[in-house]
Amino acid sequence: MLLSEIIKERILILDGAMGTMIQSYHLEEQDYRGERFKELPGQQKGNNDLLVLTNPDIIADIHRRYLEVGADIIETNTFNSQRISMTDYHCESYCRELNLAAARLARRLADEYTLKTPDKPRFVAGSVGPTNKTCSMGVYVDDPARRDVTFDNLVKAYKEQITALIEGGVDAILVETIFDTLNAKAAVFAAEQCMDSMRKYLPIMLSVTIADKTGRTLSGQTIDAFLASVSHINVFSIGLNCSFGASDMKPFLKELAAKAPCYISAYPNAGLPNTLGQYDQTPEEMAKEVRTFIDEGLVNIIGGCCGTTDAFIAQYPHLVCRDGVYRKPHVPFPPEKNLTLSGLDVLEIKKENNFINVGERCNVAGSRKFLRLIQEKKYDEAVEIARKQIEDGAQILDINMDDGLLATCDEMVHFINLLSGEPEIARVPFMIDSSDWSVISAALKCIQGKCIVNSISLKEGEALFMDHARELCRYGAAVVVMAFDEKGQADTYERRIEICQRAYRLLTEKVGMAPHDIIFDPNVLAICTGMPEHDSYAWDFIRATHWIHQNLPGVHVSGGISNLSFSFRGNNFVREAMHAVFLYHAIKHGLDMGIVNPSVTVKYDDIPAPLLELLEDVILNRKSSSGKLIEEATKMQNGEIQRTVSSMSDSWRSKIVEQRLRYALVNGVNEYIEEDLTEALSNFPSAIAIIEGPLMEAMNYVGNMFGEGKLFLPQVVKTARTMQKAVGFLQPYIEVEKKEGNKAGKVVLATVKGDVHDIGKNIVSVILSCNNYEVVDIGVMCPATDIVEAVLREKPNFVGLSGLITPSLDEMIHTVQTLKNSGISIPVVLGGATTSLLHTALKIAPVYDGPVIWVKDASQMVMVAAKLMNKAVCHKYIDSIKREQCLLREEYESKQDKIVSFDEARRNKLHLF
């Protein structure tokens, strides 16, 4: 029976640690060397892989002991058997022999036990370790772009190892103890090349190790980001090994099992090592913890790592089969249908994401300053441009080094390596932007996450187009497809949709690319050039965007927004106004992302009515107004724009202080904030009243504009920074105003995992503190387990959960479920930009035993808290909340029933005709 068949029926048992078992034999230097390697330089004690040649009976005995106690899968003793690691032992020339001998040895023992019990076949996994080098991180303080090993070096070493393992007869390739995703991608890249050349395809198993309890790998990725990075691989199983003991591993295993579209493996350590590096956990203690993995349906393969022996594995058969009945294995989730990218963090692009900003300033073709910095080798300043893009709200970072006077390939690799060492920058996905395929290929070998390549097209024919697409699939990148073909650039609506449809069919039907990894760019072209044939460019792009979403399922649409206003170079106000109007309409028709300057200052609602009407006429091609817009822009360029901008920027200073504060927040203006707040302190009864008054009004306005598509994330981020500065200035006054005496109550506040935004939560904290509540703020990116621990430790009266981004909604559901599973039922109050009354009623409240209360904004928190703390009204208030949520669910279900009934009636009507 094949491994792929038997794993569907029952949970399989993997062996335990090889190194721990070898230690029990108390071998000396001569045992490792044998006669053959007597003269080998350096110390060999500890070179466990060498024992397959010098002491194969010991390795055979270890395999036999694991098989004897019930292991279904044994690993080859080849964890370090590639040239990069073996160089330390001067054994690099023996790597092929080591792998071949180890595979044949394990194969012989597995077959021996299969013959004994044919109904329990045994399998061999070829162990492929991470090497002792890291490809995505630098280790040199004085040269952070320098790497000890390259992707190509890794692929070469891994190909030699994996080829020998396959020849030796392994059943699967296990890439394990992954601490750097780029190393793992190189191992898989090598494995796929070996299998293609040998015409022998084996399951590929991946096992990652978590560096600490934040849930990140040593190279900084979250589990979600890791999954996105390897989503291109046809993976048989993904799992966790090493890291921790079973108990501490479990939260991360649950996260993995809830998302990975493949089988799940786990082989934890025997607890955590003591101060002497020894493992104190007993086999029985570990088995008790591992049992919960099985009972909760989290695993398909279970084994042991550091500190485990055959005594530990002997506990497993009783866990996976009880009273003659096999426990049900984990059922993999279906593959993800959304475009999921990653840097150190994950970015999932869904329809409800509003609009994804791709920062454009790290582009030598689009920024003279960036080009100058690269030319002058001022990399620190160039990195700061990238950092500023992220701070201003860019969710993806576009990087382009295409310049005739640069060593383009070298500069691209150097800059990506620099950015990879900056966690606040590397957390976002990169967009590799080049017209030179060798530059794209070199860049892909430097990125551990899942990036976007910009771009490929049909301009050089179908064969090269598909070759490039297949290579991107092997590296695991999404791709921007430009609307070009052999005839040139598409500049009409008809040509745009014709090329995109042709490319879609080639990519999905012949290359096998997932539709959600395809991003079409139907060409944003300049309008108002003075040539009438260009007048329809913007509207044709918008129409094509709508058509693509209607007819090419699963794809996304992007564009280089600054191209639109090329005719108005030097007139930044008109350019930004054009972009704001274009985005407002394009997003409504399905534009998912765009390469933009995230530090925009002109918003849709800022544009004077006459200019707005002109811009919409031009962009929507409603009437021939391009001449009028050019004339108007020329006037503004000649002096009127200065007066317009001046009136916009200066007139607000003459308004009353409440209006000035509101304007400053909405526009992200920090210059006068302390001056205006000082004046406001003499007009308002307290500092908290200022926060609850004009500041909260401004925040609510920004939230509404964002929801309507009239503001984009960079502008929201600027507003949040101004609010943060305002609250910081008022904090000392608030402390003085705090009430004395008994606390009104206690609350634990947290921004849920996956979300780093805390402006709203900080405001809630300030407001509640001022109203005499004890606030325990545990921060941002808080896993559910941390929130549970805080609640159990602090014993608050209620919990406050915050989240700004869409993935926060799923995490809130998971958090309240975790609270419930821990026996907690205190009130949960939640808020944030993506939360809503309806979502709370439909998705969150039903999975929690206690009350779940949604608050629209921070100003409502004191009222909600007061009702929860007032015993006389608390029960009535909670009952009213639950009744309202129940009614919302009933209304929603009724509407859904009507939609279903309508669709059914329509289908019946169609059948009649």
Report on this model:
The protein has four domains: about 325 residues, TIM Barrel (Alpha-Beta Barrel), CATH 3.20.20.330; about 110 residues, Dihydropteroate synthase-like (TIM Barrel, Alpha-Beta Barrel), CATH 3.20.20.20; about 80 residues, Methyltransferase, Methionine Synthase (B12-binding Domains), Chain A, domain 1 (Orthogonal Bundle); about 170 residues, Cobalamin-binding domain (Rossmann fold), CATH 3.40.50.280. It has 35 helices and 27 strands. The chain is α/β, with parallel strands linked by helices and about 900 residues long. It is about 50% helix and about 10% strand. It has an eight-stranded parallel sheet. The chain starts with a helix and ends with a helix. Helix 33 links the parallel strand 26 and strand 27.
Short synopsis of the structure:
The protein is an alpha/beta fold and 913 residues long. The chain has four domains: 3-326, Homocysteine-binding-like domain (TIM Barrel), CATH 3.20.20.330; 337-450, Dihydropteroate synthase-like (TIM Barrel, Alpha-Beta Barrel), CATH 3.20.20; 655-737, Methyltransferase, Methionine Synthase (B12-binding Domains), Chain A, domain 1; 742-913, Rossmann fold.
Topology overview:
Blueprint: H1 3-6, E1 12-13, H2 18-23, H3 29-33, H4 51-54, H5 56-68, E2 73-75, H6 83-86, H7 95-116, E3 123-128, H8 151-167, E4 172-178, H9 181-198, E5 204-208, H10 223-229, E6 237-245, H11 246-257, E7 263-269, H12 283-295, E8 301-302, H13 310-313, H14 316-320, E9 321-322, E10 325-326, E11 339-342, E12 346-349, E13 356-359, H15 368-375, H16 379-391, E14 396-400, H17 408-420, H18 423-426, E15 430-433, H19 437-444, E16 452-456, H20 462-475, E17 478-482, E18 484-485, E19 488-489, H21 493-511, E20 518-521, H22 537-551, E21 556-557, H23 572-588, E22 593-596, H24 609-619, H25 626-650, H26 657-667, H27 673-683, H28 687-707, H29 713-737, E23 745-751, H30 759-770, E24 773-777, H31 784-794, E25 798-802, H32 807-821, E26 828-831, H33 837-844, E27 852-854, H34 861-869, H35 871-912
Parallel strand pairs: 1-8, 2-3, 3-4, 4-5, 5-6, 6-7, 7-8, 13-14, 13-22, 14-15, 15-16, 16-17, 17-20, 20-21, 23-24, 23-25, 25-26, 26-27
Antiparallel strand pairs: 9-10, 11-12, 18-19
Helix pairs in contact: 5-7, 7-8, 8-9, 11-12, 17-19, 20-21, 21-22, 23-24, 24-25, 26-27, 26-28, 26-29, 28-29, 29-30, 31-32, 33-35
